[in-house]
Design a protein that fits this description.
Order of helices and strands: HHHHH
Number of strands: 0
Number of domains: 1
Strand content: under 5%
Radius of gyration: 13 Å
Shape: globular
Structural class: mainly alpha
Oligomer: single chain
Distance between the termini: 35 Å
Helix content: 55-70%
Largest sheet: none
């Protein structure tokens, strides 16, 4: 079981963002290994963190991995908002 503790980082949110990106990467690895339940939990955790951090690019990437009904549309909007044309093009 994994716990991510979000506390006062003295303005250094990059550490938390890096942890969330690693959790998102773990989700991809777990999905490839067929451990779908763990993959879903990982990507859900990463998505929640990026939502709170308002990290548009990383949130969009987490939404692509999660792949729920409207996730790709929302990811496309987020990529457009932050000028990430390559990430947006990869969804087509």
């Amino acid at each position: 079981m994994r716990f991510l503790l979000l506390s006062d980082t003295h303005g250094k949110l990059g550490v938390i963002s890096e942890l969330a990106a690693k959790v998102r990467a773990d989700a991809v690895i777990h999905a490839e290994r067929g451990d779908d339940d763990v993959a879903r939990k990982d990507v859900h955790t990463a998505t929640e963190i990026f939502e709170k951090l308002e990290g548009l690019l990383e949130l969009g990437r987490a939404l692509v991995v999660r792949g729920d009904d409207d996730d790709h549309d929302r990811a496309r909007e987020l990529f457009k908002a932050c000028g990430a044309t390559t990430d947006s093009a990869n969804l087509n």
